[in-house]
């Protein structure tokens, strides 16, 4: 007998008791091409046989610990649909705030690097939103150490008809000079593994998540290299772990005394982003 959306949700959660109900809801809503509000309002809608079959396939994958975005093959970021595959970090909504901050500073003709691009989400959102603001002649660059990430990012750039120069690089070594550097780097501390979702640990690339014992390995190397890769007056925008602000403030004060540095909380009130401008 065909199930309604509500009945299908109940069945899925009973069948896979290790699966989060919100993951079932997210997958069902995406498969049905519904917004979250539409999904909640249409709980009495009866699924087709094809939709029920797809749900069964999806639940099997959820039970095996596969993240919903990898099951779908895409994720959303800043309103843009982006391909993701296992081995590529799933875009985080908090990073949208970093992009917004960088967009407040962008100028015509800026040369911009998305450092550790992953899926290319920062570059896609930044490039598309800058165009909406009337910003012209941007030189967009994206770098990553992962071949899988770079291939995925290139597909996303092509989908949005963005002209982006892609580079394989470890932090900034071998890259040019830029006006803006934007990055959501690895910053999770090693001792925080036990607090993380198993889905994340089993699916997403470790090198894009963990930043060494104290979470600051990337930032130390970045601070040592950044002057060689910024033009005079150049700026950077970085995300960081909410428990790392004091250590990061001290690190940048020691290594980047000639930079104006500003920290900012995210919308949840957690320390999340840092801006730096080279006073050169």
UniProtKB/TrEMBL annotation:
Alphabetized UniProt keyword annotations: Methyltransferase, S-adenosyl-L-methionine, Transferase
Q: What is its EC number?
A: 2.1.1.297
One Pfam family, short name please? Answer: PrmC_N
SUPFAM superfamilies attached to this UniProt entry: S-adenosyl-L-methionine-dependent methyltransferases
Q: Supply one GO BP term.
A: methylation
Q: Keyword Endoplasmic reticulum: yes or no?
A: no
Q: Which residues form the Release factor glutamine methyltransferase N-terminal domain?
A: 21-73
Record-linked CDD domains: AdoMet_MTases
| InterPro entries linked to this entry | DNA_methylase_N6_adenine_CS, HemK-like, N5-glutamine_MTase, PrmC_N, RF_methyltr_PrmC, SAM-dependent_MTases_sf, Small_mtfrase_dom
What this protein catalyses is: L-glutaminyl-[peptide chain release factor] + S-adenosyl-L-methionine = N(5)-methyl-L-glutaminyl-[peptide chain release factor] + S-adenosyl-L-homocysteine + H(+)
Q: What domain of life does the UniProt record list for this protein's source?
A: Bacteria
Q: Is this entry keyworded ATP-binding? A: no
Q: Name one GO molecular function term.
A: nucleic acid binding
Enzyme superclass (EC) = transferase
Query: Could you tell me which residue ranges the Methyltransferase small domain spans?
Result: 108-193
PANTHER family, A to Z: HEMK METHYLTRANSFERASE (PTHR18895), MTRF1L RELEASE FACTOR GLUTAMINE METHYLTRANSFERASE (PTHR18895:SF74)
Record protein name field: peptide chain release factor N(5)-glutamine methyltransferase
